[in-house]
Amino acid sequence: MFNWYTTHWSDVMRDQVTHGLSSELNGPPLSEPPFESYGCKLVPNGTAVTMTRAPGKLFPTITGQLPSGERFSGVTLPDMQKPSAP
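Predicted structure:
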């Protein structure tokens, strides 16, 4: 999912920067991943979250609450979360 997401946005940015020429050479950008189909959520910027990593685990767990009030929990990559300002 992480690779799919980053590839999609990389393709979109490349196409924007080249004014569509990238699509002519490489085909259209990879579609955005269907997060919900895989049980994933893309959390809006600014959402307060807690990230923890259990000893010996490769990926951290992230938990939080969406503006709608829905709580979420799952794994993420450490660089998917921006540190909050002090």
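Summary: Strands lie at 49-52, 61-65, 71-75.
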